[in-house]
């Protein structure tokens, strides 16, 4: 994001060896999209989407480590079970699948950049908050609360991204029990939003909430997020440098690396505590 909250144009980086696949990708992205196929991003490049095959899969962890806000990765691979990217598609993927995947990736990136712009353009109404408890149920509420609480933190633009990842995970994967595999399938067939709304209304999920506690001390901000889901085995996600479980694992990694000093999952995995260490200039 450029100074003043302006959203800059994203780079669409495509590195595949098969010319036919490259043509299909270009068609799915649209004629108006400028595709970059260089060996490395320009120093001032703002990555929006990386699309690679197995021969260039090493670019995925490189992009992850550079922590481009909102950047999405698509891996087209002979081993779809590897799960090393935001979207993992089989090598023989039908061309009709590419467009909805790319659209979803673009929407995610645009949402992250919009979130940062929103934070940058607002003044905090809770800048001196020391403690607060909040309850949410929907993805829209997750976004709004992410913005509000981020404004009470240093580096609010990146905190907003990480916090939204944790809250969205709590709603989608926790309370609504949408797995990473299910989410990708729903995105591909264009029914993800409808399924989220259906589950929010379904009797087995309708009473579930996400409880968020915010506490600010002299040297530390602690944010605890608890959902009403069954939890999950979180050990692989918080200990690995390359989480491999699609959205949930990569969302945890983004939050951990980009936004917070530490992330710890508790109990059965339905509670997560994120901390932000305060420098002396941030304490007041």
Structure explained in plain terms:
The protein has helices at residues 19-29, 59-66, 95-121, 139-150, 156-175, 180-188, 192-201, 235-239, 246-259, and strands spanning 11-15, 35-36, 47-53, 72-77, 87-90, 131-136, 210-216, 220-226, 262-266, 271-277. The chain is an alpha/beta fold. The protein has 2 domains: 3-116, Response regulator (Rossmann fold, 3-Layer(aba) Sandwich), CATH 3.40.50.2300; 130-282, Histidine kinase-like ATPase, C-terminal domain (Heat Shock Protein 90), CATH 3.30.565. The chain has a 5-stranded parallel sheet, with helices on both faces. Helix 2 (59-66) links the parallel strand 3 and strand 4. Helix 1 crosses helix 3 (95-121) and helix 3 packs across helix 5 (156-175). The radius of gyration is 19 Å and the shape is globular. The model is unreliable at 1-8 and 242-248 (pLDDT under 50).
Number of domains: 2
What integer is the average pLDDT? 84
- The string of secondary-structure elements, in order, is EHEEHEEHEHHHHEEHHEE
Write down the CATH class of the largest domain: Alpha Beta
Q: How many helices in DSSP terms?
A: 9
Going by CATH, what is the homologous superfamily of the largest domain? Answer: Histidine kinase-like ATPase, C-terminal domain
Enter the CATH topology name of the largest domain.
Heat Shock Protein 90
Strand content is: 15-25%
Shape: globular
Query: Biggest sheet: strands side by side, in what order?
Result: 2-1-3-4-5
The count of DSSP E runs of length 2 or more, i.e. the number of strands, is 10
**Intertermini distance:** 27 Å
């Amino acid at each position: 994001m450029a100074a003043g909250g302006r959203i800059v144009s994203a780079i669409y980086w495509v590195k595949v060896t098969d010319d036919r696949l490259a043509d299909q990708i270009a068609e799915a992205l649209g004629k108006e999209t400028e595709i970059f196929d260089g060996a490395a991003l320009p120093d001032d490049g703002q990555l929006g989407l990386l699309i690679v095959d197995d021969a260039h899969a090493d670019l995925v962890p490189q992009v992850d480590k550079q922590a481009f806000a909102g950047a999405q990765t698509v891996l087209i691979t002979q081993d779809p079970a590897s799960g090393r990217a935001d979207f993992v598609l089989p090598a023989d993927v039908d061309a009709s699948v590419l467009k909805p995947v790319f659209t979803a990736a673009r929407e995610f990136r645009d949402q992250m950049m919009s979130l940062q712009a929103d934070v940058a353009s607002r003044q905090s109404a809770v800048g001196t908050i020391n403690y607060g408890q909040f309850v949410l149920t929907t993805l829209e509420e997750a976004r709004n609360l992410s913005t509000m609480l981020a404004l009470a933190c240093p580096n609010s633009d990146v905190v907003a991204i990480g916090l939204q990842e944790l809250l969205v995970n709590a709603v989608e994967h926790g309370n609504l029990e949408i797995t990473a595999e299910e989410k990708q399938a729903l995105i591909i067939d264009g029914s993800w939003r409808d399924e989220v709304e259906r589950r929010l209304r379904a009797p087995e999920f309708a009473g579930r909430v996400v409880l968020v506690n915010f506490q600010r001390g002299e040297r530390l901000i602690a944010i605890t997020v608890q959902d009403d889901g069954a939890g999950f085995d979180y050990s692989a996600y918080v200990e690995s440098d390359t989480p491999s479980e699609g959205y949930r694992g990569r969302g945890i990694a983004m939050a951990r690396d980009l936004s917070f000093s530490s992330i710890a999952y508790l109990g059965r995995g339905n509670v997560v505590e994120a901390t932000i260490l305060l420098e002396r200039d941030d304490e007041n």
